[in-house]
Amino acid sequence: MKKPSQKTQPAILYTIVPKDLAGHLFDVTLTVASPDPDGQVFALPAWIPGSYMIREFARNIVRIRAESGGQEVALAKLDKHSWRAAKSAGPLTLHYEVYAWDLSVRAAHLDQTHGFFNGTSVFLRVLGQEDRPHQVDIQRPADPAAKTWRVATAMKELGARRYGFGTYVAGDYDELIDHPVEMGDFQLASFKAHGVPHDIVVTGRVPNLDMARLQADLKAICETQIAFFEPQTKRAPMERYVFMTMAVGDGYGGLEHRASTALICARADLPGLGTPKGGEPGEGYLRFLGLCSHEYFHTWNVKRIKPAVFAPYDLQVENYTPLLWLFEGFTSYYDDLMLVRAGIIGEPTYFKLLSKTMAGVLRGSGRLKQSVAESSFDAWSKYYRQDENSPNAIISYYTKGSLIGLAFDLTIRARTHGARSLDDVMRVLWERFGCDFYQGGGRGVGEAQVEAIFDEVAGARLRTQFERWVRGTEDLPLAKLYAPFGLKLVDERKSGKPSLDANIGRDPLGAKLSQVHEGGAAHRAGLSAHDVIIAIDGLRATGNPSNVDTLLGRYRVGDTVRIHAFRRDELMAFEVILQGERAPGISLAPAAPGRKAALLKRPSSM
Fold first, then answer.
1. Which one of 240, 316, 394, 438 has the fewest beta carbons within 10 angstroms of its own beta carbon?
2. Per-residue pLDDT tens digits for 475-488
3. Residue 8 has what DSSP assignment?
4. Are strands 156-157 and 166-170 parallel, antiparallel or unpaired?
5. How far apart are CA 102 and CA 260, in angstroms?
6. Are 131 and 6 spatial neighbours (Cβ–Cβ below 8 Å)?
């Protein structure tokens, strides 16, 4: 007799109820029809894919119990995120409460205004039965404040109606935790990108939101990216997509999923009906569109094209890979470039954004100590756990990774005389490792395979570039790489402006040094991060950075000033020899006025 497949066996059943809005508690019920006869083990993920840090979500489980046939079943805790239930003859049910008060894209949040959760925060995994279908009954809160709430998720409806409470279904546990859920009184709009429905969900108070402009701009971005990966078919890899946005007073962030993204932004960054029509987006709205573009590009690059170590994920421990420079860095390279190709911004604005990234990378000395491959591998312990010394010790695989993408793009275009580009590398990765990932392909890409594809597209060995740019710490020769494309890159150091070469934050006593850059005036004088400057040559310093700039503006480079500062509760004095501003001032523009940059032209594909 043929053994039934996991997919045809009884589904894993969850019910989730926003139980206490003021207390921020979700009540979850989990039923397993045929638990492990030796004792079923359950575990909550320790991290969420896309955010490379152990977060120990199980610490938010307030209480938990198990029962079978109306009888209590003993639960033994195995470690910080796992439990084993005692043997039971019939179906096993777990009841547990989850505290949800993390207003971010990574976890869960619940109050009288809305509810949000990622599955990694609320759905215990049934070990050994992850491949079975998983059903979720999302119930409406009993609180009268929630009587008009709706539900937004990319998860497929089973008994529920679109945007309604009820039952949803996922093919397996991996899919279940890849569909975050938003519930509340949100603003909603929809559009189609190459025939695929896309929803825009905005939670939070955003008066006079210009949803029509948001629809038009996101449609342009989405269609551009779909055509990028599938230029012939223009076929999207999902049946439906949802942009979930939480608007707050001040915030920024996003997390990608296979058919949706969770975003948080400042409400001022969203377009208003009073904003002048026409022209390019303002700074805040441009930042939001760049975030949307970044997370949407991840639909292909990291959600389907994955590092081998992510296929599949091990959700209980760190998953180390040296390839995040490609999956996050290249996504960062393309996010703003897609805004140009979609016609949302022009060449001058794009060059300003690119110049800002270049200046940021050159700002910290950590770039000379850590490669992007090392930065990728150490994401769990260094990039996601930054401190006051991080600029002096590490490099971002996002920002330098994006510039490495640019450097490879320029290199491939030059070597193939404009016939090929980094676009072709991404499409080859998609065709060989991504397009069938959730249809039985399920294969990640390794380091050697990545390098082989670059060589294949470029028609030449690029080992030297990988050694110097990816595994080395050299500054990228972008000025030289740009020259054949009619672009001029200039590093204009602001040497005439005296500076402490430190980042300054606010403190009730004065100007707090949040970060002190290695080799700068503050460092050489003995000042340290967390010192609070209260006076410069006898004049009071405040927490406003412009106040410090004003005080230093009366001096020249090379002058000595006496600074009084508190370190902890001790007053100290420092003699500081002012240096010139060391922050790079990068400018990028066509070498000849009026000339369009060849870089922004799309070469023919392979």
1. 240
2. 999 999 999 998 88
3. G
4. antiparallel
5. 20
6. yes
Prediction pTM value: 0.95
Q: How far is CA 5 from CA 10, 436, 474, 507, in A?
A: 10, 21, 52, 61
Query: What is the rounded distance in angstroms from the CA atom of residue 127 to the CA atom of residue 36?
Result: 9
pLDDT exceeds 60 at position 147: yes
> Which two structure tokens, joined as six digits, stand for 211?
């949803």
The two tokens of residue 523 are: 């460092």
Instruction: Return the bridge partners of 253, or none.
Output: 264
Rounded to the nearest 5°, which phi and psi values hold at 117? -155, 145
Three-state DSSP string of 432-492: HHHCCHHHCCCCCECHHHHHHHHHHHHCCCCHHHHHHHHCCCCCCCHHHHHHHHCEEEEEC
Alpha-carbon distances of 117 from 18, 177, 198, 217, 246, rounded to whole Å: 10, 10, 20, 27, 12
Task: Enter the tokens of residue 117.
Answer: 């959760």
CB 73 within 8 A of CB 92: yes
> Are 126 and 12 spatial neighbours (Cβ–Cβ below 8 Å)?
yes
* Residues contacting residue 100 through CB under 8 Å, at least 6 positions apart: 24, 25, 26, 60, 107, 108, 109, 110, 115, 116, 117, 121, 122
CB 547 within 8 A of CB 553: no
Residues 543, 508: Cα–Cα separation, whole Å: 7
Q: What is the DSSP string of 584-595?
A: --EEEEESSTTP
Distance between CA 174 and CA 131 in Å, rounded?
Answer: 8
Cα 118 from Cα 51, distance rounded (Å): 12
Amino acid at 166: G
Checking 267-272 for CB contacts under 8 A at 24+ apart, the result is 267/204, 267/205, 267/206, 270/202, 270/206, 270/209, 270/210, 270/214, 270/245, 271/209, 271/210, 271/213, 271/214, 272/207, 272/208, 272/209, 272/210
3-class SS at 229?
Answer: helix
Structure confidence by residue, pLDDT tens digits, 536-577? 999 999 988 789 999 999 999 999 999 999 999 999 999 999
Residue pair 265/248 in contact (Cβ under 8 Å)? The answer is yes
